[in-house]
């Protein structure tokens, strides 16, 4: 027996034996057995337990930025990849699953902010076959990141290189515009945090990027990350409505962890977003806003400050409030 029939017979034997081995189907139809708990490097791999969260340990701190390693019918994929400064930790995280960068077939980006996508160009340089999925609005900024870098350097100043490292362009031939279906994920626009943000949903798990806020396991607290330049509270409300309509069972957050109480979590996020926006609209200064957020977090403030700096949240909301008032004044 050979080809497809040989592979199917091997899989049937595995079922009869109680599936003590993992069988890997190869393109010629053959099946290769490997004992559970062992993984070899290469293009064929045992299914990754979804979702597998890699802690990128940004600047040496745990539970600040993560990336998800997921399995698909087309092989392993990453959801977000973190910044260039975390590349070594990302490689180490892949190695723990028996994989290297060249084993990853696809990179699914939620948006192009540097904590989520800064390493994309580096990964494609290392693995020229990697396909990068991103929204239509975000795609040009991956191909030519000059404007993105210029904007980020204005915000972070001298801290830019320490925080994020270098940006490399992603060749246009490696970029795929994310539509309603990406591999075996549903994909949908989720603006609010960023106008070009998208979420991915599969098997009841929402890979939310920043659309579902920041919550650092095991804390129950939820914050709204509102950095400049394009925070839009009304758009974010509509995104939360859409997430609730889709009724995910779990939320997979890049900052940081997987949570199984989406209804409570999303309600808390909506409340945190509006309270923060109202505080800025009422005229709070940056110092007053930072002090209020720090006080509300208590002992958890240092942990959250790295993942969602209060000064950034203030500046994004100030810009939103000023733009909204200008639009209202122009409509009169």
Summarize the structure.
Helix content is 39%, strand content 18%. The protein has 12 helices and 14 strands. The protein has helices spanning 3-16, 87-96, 114-117, 120-126, 139-143, 146-156, 160-164, 233-246, 262-281, 286-297, 301-307, 310-331, and strands at 21-25, 31-35, 52-55, 66-72, 75-79, 106-108, 131-134, 175-177, 181-182, 185-189, 198-202, 205-209, 250-253, 257-259.
Report on this structure.
The protein has 332 residues and is of the alpha/beta class. The chain has twelve helices and 14 strands. The protein has three domains: 1-38, no CATH class; 51-183, Metallo-beta-lactamase, Chain A, CATH 3.60.15.10; 206-332, no CATH class. A hairpin with a 2-residue loop joins strand 9 and strand 10 (185-189). Helix 9 (262-281) packs across helix 12 (310-331), helix 10 (286-297) packs across helix 11 and helix 10 packs across helix 12. The longest helix is centred in the last third of the chain and has 22 residues, at 310-331. The chain is globular and about 50 Å long. The chain starts with a helix and ends with a helix.
């Amino acid at each position: 027996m050979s080809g497809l029939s040989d592979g199917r017979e091997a899989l049937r034997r595995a079922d009869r034996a109680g599936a003590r081995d993992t069988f890997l189907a190869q393109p010629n139809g053959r099946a290769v057995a490997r004992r559970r708990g062992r993984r070899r490097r290469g293009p064929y791999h045992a299914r990754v337990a979804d979702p597998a969260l890699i802690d990128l340990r940004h600047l040496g701190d745990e539970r600040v930025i993560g990336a998800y390693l997921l399995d698909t019918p087309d092989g392993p994929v990453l959801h977000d990849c973190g910044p260039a400064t975390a590349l070594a930790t990302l490689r180490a995280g892949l190695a723990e699953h028996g994989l290297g960068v060249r084993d990853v077939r696809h990179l699914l980006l939620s948006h192009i902010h540097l904590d989520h996508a800064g390493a994309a160009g580096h990964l494609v340089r290392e693995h020229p076959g990697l396909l990068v999925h991103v929204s239509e609005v975000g795609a040009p900024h991956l191909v030519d990141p000059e404007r993105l870098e210029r904007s980020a350097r204005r915000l972070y100043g001298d801290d830019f290189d320490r925080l994020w490292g270098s940006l490399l362009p992603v060749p246009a031939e490696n970029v795929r515009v994310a539509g309603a279906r990406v591999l075996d994920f549903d994909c949908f626009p989720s603006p609010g945090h960023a106008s070009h943000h998208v979420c991915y949903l599969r098997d009841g798990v929402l890979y939310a990027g920043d659309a579902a806020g920041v919550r650092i396991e095991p804390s129950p607290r939820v914050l709204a990350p509102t950095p400049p330049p394009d925070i839009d509270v009304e758009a974010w409300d509509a995104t939360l409505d859409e997430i609730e309509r889709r009724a995910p069972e779990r939320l997979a957050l890049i900052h940081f962890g997987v949570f199984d109480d989406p209804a409570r979590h999303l309600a808390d996020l909506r409340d945190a977003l509006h309270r923060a926006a109202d505080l800025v609209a009422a005229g709070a200064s940056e110092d007053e806003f930072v002090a209020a957020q720090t006080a509300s977090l208590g002992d958890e403030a240092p942990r959250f400050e790295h993942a969602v700096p209060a000064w950034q949240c203030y500046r994004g909301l100030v810009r939103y409030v000023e733009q909204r008032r200008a639009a209202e004044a122009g409509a009169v």
